[in-house]
Design goal:
- There is one protein chain.
- The chain is flat.
- The strands form five sheets. The protein has a two-stranded antiparallel sheet. It has a two-stranded antiparallel sheet with strand order 3-4. A two-stranded antiparallel sheet has the order 5-6.
- Helix content is 55%, strand content 7%.
- The protein has helices spanning 2-39, 42-66, 70-96, 110-118, 122-133, 190-220, 227-259, 263-267, 285-293, 330-336, and strands spanning 149-150, 155-156, 162-164, 169-171, 176-178, 183-185, 271-272, 275-276, 341-342, 354-355.
Length: 357
């Protein structure tokens, strides 16, 4: 008994030291995450600063200082502000539209989670996930052939869903995490990201095309030297530089949309029951475009959400339209909570055929 009493102060001191050390680690971790969040806005601040400078250089230094023709000035200002507004609108939507995450139907219930965590055998865990996934419209698998499961989010991943380490969450139809918008580009904002790229290119082309003649006049000395000369000369270089970089990026994403692939799927093909298939979600250019932009073409070029579905399941190339989970069973699956039956033979065909009950 005396030995226990003698040891207790030292044990208490060790516990206090351990607690203080863990508190310090947690504080440092929070500080690091806070710094990461702050620094992640630097690319957005850079883009915003360049755009604001371009607004000043074009409106004030070019239109009000350099241009002498009033009709030309009015036309330039009108078209410029239309391009500027559409650019800012799409950029805002790409930045501040939160990425969509899997619904509660894809989260493990308390009993399923307890059963999964209590099981130590990997094969048994795979079987548990396979049983749960039978109630869900899931067609893709991991490279090993198992149901895709996120240990961090504790969620069965829907098709085309991936975990973003920057956003620290699973994102529906994740394309990539873009530092220039400080957001994860996925199902909820992919249309906005594409429109942002397109209106950025239009903005740059309009500036370059209207500034070019005055760039030449300043260059050869037909216009007097002054602050406007620097802004006009630099404005052309910046517009052309951004246009070239955006052109390649926009062209690449147009190709992805035409093939119905994400950036992640272009590098690593989605895996179905019979193996990887890069064209598994390719249902034709017209329907591929409709998945991203919607059926109403009048809304294609306006930054409002019009994408088809809810991001949890997508048409498959090998399914007929009547058997398509997005077109045929979406309403039914939402109503009955995912009770549609699926054939789940591990050695069966490349896709799962859903039957109407």
């Amino acid at each position: 008994m005396p030995e226990r009493l003698a040891r207790s102060p030292a044990a208490d001191e060790d516990r206090r030291a351990s607690r203080s050390q863990s508190s310090l680690v947690m504080a440092l971790s929070r500080a690091l995450r806070c710094c990461q969040r702050i620094f992640s806005w630097i690319p957005v601040i850079i883009i915003s600063s360049v755009v604001l400078w371009s607004y000043y250089a074009y409106v004030f230094e070019l239109c009000f200082v350099t241009l002498s023709n009033h009709l030309e000035r009015v036309a330039y200002l009108l078209i410029f502000h239309v391009c500027f507004i559409m650019f800012c609108w799409t950029y805002w939507k790409a930045i501040f539209t939160p990425p969509s995450t899997p619904s509660k139907k894809f989260h493990l219930s308390y009993s399923d989670k307890e059963r999964y965590e209590m099981e130590e055998r990997p094969d048994a865990q795979k079987q548990i996930l396979a049983e749960i996934a039978r109630k869900l419209p899931i067609f893709t698998r991991a490279q090993s052939g198992a149901i895709r499961f996120c240990d961090r989010c504790q969620v069965i991943k829907p098709d085309r869903c991936h975990h973003c380490s920057v956003c620290e969450t699973c994102v529906l139809k994740m394309d990539h995490h873009c530092p220039w918008v400080n957001n994860c580009v996925g199902f909820s904002n992919y249309k906005f990201f594409l429109l942002f790229l397109s209106y950025s290119m239009i903005y740059c082309v309009f500036i370059a095309s209207t500034v070019f003649q005055y760039f030449l006049k300043f260059w050869v000395g037909d216009l007097p030297n002054g602050p406007a000369k620097f802004h006009v000369l630099f404005l052309l270089f910046v517009a052309l530089m951004f246009f070239v970089s955006l052109m390649f990026l926009f062209g690449y994403h147009c190709w992805l949309v035409a093939k119905n692939r994400s950036t992640l799927e272009a590098f690593s093909a989605p895996v179905f029951q019979n193996g990887p298939d890069r064209n598994g979600f390719n249902v034709g250019i017209s329907r591929n475009l409709q998945q991203v932009f919607g059926e109403d073409k009048k809304l294609w070029f306006i930054p409002v959400f019009t994408s088809q579905g809810d991001g949890h399941y997508f048409p498959l190339r090998t399914l007929r339209e009547s058997e398509n989970p997005l077109l045929a069973n979406e309403g039914k699956w939402m109503e009955d909570g995912g009770s549609d039956e699926e054939s789940a033979d591990e050695n069966g065909p490349s896709v799962i055929i859903r039957t109407e009950s």
